[in-house]
Structure to design on (189 residues):
């Protein structure tokens, strides 16, 4: 009886891994078709040192392949711009820019969002292991950092959506704090 189970596992495990890889390839191909757009976001940061989550709201704009802008409107205005490989932060009339490749953990974090939106599996695999939970109506891609330096900051990133649309991003930090972000497309008149 034991040998039958071992034989069954030996035959089916490679097929299930290949099936999962095919599902990720299909998801990446679907995501790559999205040219971008503007979404409203609500973000909640759950931190152990606070009694209630911090909430911010604003808009994000993505233009394929490498432009991502986040404009926080409340509780205080802030603009975060990723244009090609330069990250710029504007807050309180101050502006700071840096190439993302100067800090590997920033580069990896940028890859989690931008490479997912681009459908760039190879870029994601440089920094993360990937696991996909997929149903006909909804998918969730879980990214786990490969390098210890990044694992000391974030333990996992869950990106979820439907078809080519990402509507939820959740970051779980190594210290247990987490950030949830919900995205809703902005309809233009």
């Amino acid at each position: 009886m034991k040998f039958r189970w071992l034989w069954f596992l030996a035959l089916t495990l490679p097929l299930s891994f290949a099936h999962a890889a095919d599902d990720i390839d299909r998801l990446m191909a679907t995501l790559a078709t999205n040219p971008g757009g503007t979404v409203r976001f609500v973000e909640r940061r759950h931190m152990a040192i606070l009694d209630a989550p911090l909430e911010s709201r604003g808009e994000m704009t993505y233009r394929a392949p490498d432009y991502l802008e986040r404009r926080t409107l409340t509780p205080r205005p802030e603009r975060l711009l990723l244009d090609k490989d330069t990250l710029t932060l504007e807050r309180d009339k101050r502006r700071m820019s840096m190439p993302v490749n100067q800090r590997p953990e920033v580069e990896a974090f940028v890859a989690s969002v931008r490479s997912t939106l681009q459908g760039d599996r190879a870029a994601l695999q440089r920094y993360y292991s990937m696991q996909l939970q997929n149903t006909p109506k909804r998918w969730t891609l879980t990214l786990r950092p490969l390098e210890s330096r990044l694992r000391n900051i974030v333990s996992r990133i869950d990106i979820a959506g439907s078809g080519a649309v990402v509507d939820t991003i959740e970051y779980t930090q190594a210290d247990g704090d987490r950030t949830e972000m919900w995205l809703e497309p902005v309809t233009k008149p």
